Every structure is written in C-alpha cells, then in structure tokens.
Amino acid sequence: MGKRGRLPMPPHLRLLKGDGRPSRARQPVAAEIPATKPEPPSWLPEQACAEWRSVSGELFRLGLLTTLDTAPLAAWAVAAARFKAASEALQAMPESERLISKGKVNPLVKIVRNAADEMHTRAYFLH
User: Fold this and answer.
1) Mapping DSSP to helix (H, G, I), strand (E, B) and coil, where does residue 40 land?
2) What is the pTM assigned to this prediction?
3) First to last CA, the chain
C-alpha cells in the first residue's frame, strides 16, 4: 500500500503560501525550453499536425512548450483532430439523425464527447 496522508505541496505553491520554513522547501525542477519551436512528431496524422501547429507557436512564445510537453501536446492534437472530424461529420448529417439514429445514441455524439473529455484532460500543459 502507498503512503497515506496529504500529497506534498508543489514548491511554487509553497513559496506563494509562505510556510515560513525555507529549509524544507524543495528546489523546483525546471524543464528545458528548446531554442527553437519543436516540430510535430513524424507519426502524427495530418489533421493532428495542423492542430499542433495552430497552438505550438503561441505556447512556445509564452515559454510553456518544453521538451517534456511534446508527447502531451501530440496526444492533445490527436484528440482535437478527432473532435473536429467527428463534429464536422455530425453537422453534415440531417438534424433529425444527429442525436438519435435508429433508436440509439448516434456514435458520432459519443466520439465528440470522448474527444472533448480527452482534450480537457490532456490540456494540463496549457496552464
């Protein structure tokens, strides 16, 4: 069984809170920020590469895109591409079949919902 109790507070929050014990404060780990904007991985689909390029420039400009963030950004880009494709396919359907088709929830609705959830959970690198 793992450790019990509260998780330790991250160093940057500990400094903001000012717990009065600098001797116990851990030094934050700084990720390496590349000199140039990273290119999308070669295995990303074309639509995901477009999503990567649409956000990576601004993330890099703000100093939020480090070498540790390339995999989460790639996962987010794949989910964003899936969300966009399913949303467009859903909009192309007749309005009467968008939510319920043949007595069941339209599978595209589930794909859109799951992709949106995945984008939300993978977006921690955007903060």
Assistant:
1) coil
2) 0.68
3) 32
